[in-house]
Amino acid sequence: MPLSQIDFINYPSPKESKTTRKRERAGGNPVLSGLLLAILSRVLAASTFVQKLLWRLNGFDKIKDLPELEGYTARFDPTVIPATADSSEALSLLELPRPPKRRSEKAYYTTADYHEAYKSGALTPVDVAEYLLPLIVRQGKMPNKYSVAYLDVQPDVVRAAARASAERYRSGKPLSVLDGVPVAVKDEVNLEGHKKSLGSSLDFRPKLDATDWCVRKWEEAGAVVIGKTNMHELGLDTTNNNPTWGTPLNPHNEDYYTGGSSGGSACTAAQGICPVVLGVDGGGSIRIPSSFCGLYGLKTSQNRVSVYPAVPGANTVAVYGPMAPSIDDLALAYRIMAQPCPEDPLNKAWPSPTTHSVVQVTGEGKRYLGIDREWIDRSDPAVLNMFYAAVQYYRQAHGYEVVDIRIPLQAENQKAFSLTILTEAMTVLSMDKVKQLQHPNQILLNVSGIHATAQDLLASNRLRERAMRHLAWLWKQYPGLLVLTPTTPFAGWKIRKPSDITDGHGASDADMTLRSMEYTSFSNWSGTPAITCPVGYAEGNVPVGIMALGEWGSEEQLIQFGQRHESFLGEDGVRRPTKAENWVDVLSQATKQ
C-alpha cells in the first residue's frame, strides 16, 4: 500500500515553520577527565548556585521565551500511528523476505549463512554457542576485547536455547531464518532471568521479571539471545565510556569509541560475533554507534515497542531498534520484533510489518531527498565529501530528486530534547542514586536534570509540536520525502587519552556530545523513523554514516532506501575490521562438538 493512501492517528496538522533566528553552535563547556572531573562533580553536587549558572550558560532557560512558540500547544508524546484497514494475512516467519548469503569471503556473515550451515548439518546452534561463550563470558576483573561488550551472560540459558534450536533443525522444522542465530540485546532491555543495571552499579530490574515484547518475538523466531550488552551509564552520553564495566573499543580503530549509548551492541556486531543486535535509541544511540562501527541501524517510529519500558515516562523519546552489517538482516530483524503487541493499548494499533501490504510499501511517484544545506554544511569536510558523493549516487542510480528544505530552530529543538529526557530520567532517580553514578552523569543530572520548571517543560513540548507540524508540511509538499543528513558531523570520536577509559573517573565533553547528536536527536524528538547506512571510511579506517529520516510509519520505505544504498558500497558490501583479531570468524572457527 503506498504511503499516500495510509491514514494516521495523532498526525500533526501541517504548518510551515519559519524563523529568521540564526543557527546556534554548541560551545563553552570544558572538557573534563580524571581528578578534576571528580572534584567538579562534588562541587556541583554541593552548589545550587553553580548548577543554575551552568543551566543558564547552556541556554536551557531560554526555550520558554521563544516568540516562535505563540499559537502552538504542547505535545508530550510524538507517537503517530499509521492506521490501515489491512485485510491481508500476515506472512509466516518462514515466508518473510530472506536475506541472501554474504557476498564474498571479505564480507560479514548474514543470518542466511547460519541458517544454511545448520540446515546442511555442517554446524549446529550448539556448536556456535559453545564457541562463543568463552569469548563473551567475563573472567575475573578485567574483561577481554570481546567480553567487555557484555554485562550479563547466562551460559545455561544460552545452551538451552541452542539445544532447542538444534533439535528443530534435526527434525527439519526451523522456525525462521533467525532460528539458532546468536543475537545480543542492550542492557536497557528487560530479559527474564538477567540483571539490569543500565550500565551502572545500580539495580534496575523490574518487579515483574519478564522479557520485553520485541525480544520475545526474536526468541519465538528461534534466535539464541547470548547476552545483554554494555552501554553508556543510563544511556546519557554518546561514547560508551564506562568506568564501571569497561569501555568497548571500536573494532575498526581501537583509538576510537564505539559510540553510545548502545556501544556494546554495535561493538559485538562489528566484531562479527552476532549478525543482528538490539539497541535502544534515545538521542541517536542506535544510529551513532551504527555509524561509528560501520553498521546499518534502524530507529523506528513505533515508540512503545516494550510492554515494560526501561525507564518509566521516557518512552516518548526512546525506542528499540536493530543494528546489523547487512541491510536485509536489519529488515528481517525489524519485521519480526515490531509485530504489534496485544498487551499494549497503543502498540497494538500499529499495522503488522509482516503483512503483504506493509512489506510492499514503497511510496509512489517521485523520490525526494530533502537537504537543509546550511545544517549539513556544519559537518567536517571529510564527512561532507562522502555525503555529497552519496547524494550524487542516489540521483544518478535511483532517480531521486534533491530538494532544498529548511529545518528551523534545530539547535533549540535539541536543547528542548535534552531538557526533557534528562528531566524524565530524574523521575526514577533519587538524589542518593545520583550520588552513586559516574562523575559525568552526576554533573549532567545536577545541571540539566533537576532545574527544569513546568514552564520549561511546557515550552519544550510546544516546540516539539511546532517541529512535527513543520515536518507534516514538508511531506504534504513532497510526498515520500526523505530528509538526508550525515549521521554525525564528524568521523568517529577519538579517545582523547588512555587514562580517560582506565582511571575510573570517565570523561566529559558536553560540546562534543551535543555535536554528535546534531542530526540524530531530531528524529527521536519528532517521533519519526530513521535509518543509518555506512557510506565510507575516513582517515584511520574510521567508518562514516549517512542518515535518512522518513515520515511516521515509513520504516519499509527506509529499508528500501537502505537496499538501494547497498550497491553504493561495492561488491563486498560492509567492510569488516582490517585487523584479523578484531573480527571473529564464527562459522569457520566453531567446530562440531
Description:
With 593 residues, this protein is α/β, with parallel strands linked by helices. It has one domain (81-411, 461-589): Amidase signature (AS) enzymes. Helices cover 35% and strands 12% of the residues. It is built from 21 helices and 15 strands. The relative contact order is 0.18.
Structural topology:
Layout: E1 7-9, E2 31-33, H1 34-46, H2 48-57, E3 81-83, H3 111-120, H4 125-136, E4 150-152, H5 155-170, E5 182-186, H6 213-220, E6 224-229, H7 263-270, E7 276-281, H8 287-292, E8 296-299, E9 319-324, H9 327-337, H10 356-359, E10 367-371, H11 373-376, H12 381-398, E11 400-404, H13 410-425, H14 431-434, H15 439-448, H16 454-477, E12 482-486, H17 499-502, E13 507-509, H18 510-516, H19 520-526, E14 530-538, E15 542-549, H20 555-565, H21 586-589
Parallel strand pairs: 5-6, 5-7, 10-11, 10-12
Antiparallel strand pairs: 1-3, 2-13, 4-6, 7-9, 8-9, 8-14, 12-15, 14-15
Helix pairs in contact: 1-15, 4-5, 9-20, 13-16, 13-19
Keywords:
alpha/beta; Amidase signature (AS) enzymes; two-stranded antiparallel ribbon
Task: Briefly characterize the structure.
The chain is 35% helix and 12% strand.
* Approximate helicity band: 25-40%
Q: Largest sheet, described in full?
A: 11 strands, mixed
**CATH evolutionary superfamily:** Amidase signature (AS) domain
Strand content: 5-15%
Distance between the termini: 48 Å
The count of β-strands is: 15
Query: Which stretches are poorly predicted, pLDDT < 50 over at least 5 residues?
Result: 304-316
Query: Could you give the order of strands across the largest sheet?
Result: 4-6-5-7-9-8-14-15-12-10-11
What structural class results from the helix and strand content? alpha/beta
**CATH fold node name:** Amidase signature (AS) enzymes
Taken together, the total number of domains comes to 1
Q: Rounded to an integer, what's the Rg over CA atoms?
A: 22 Å
CATH class term: Alpha Beta
Overall morphology: globular
Rounded average pLDDT: 91
Total DSSP helices: 21
CATH architecture: Alpha-Beta Complex
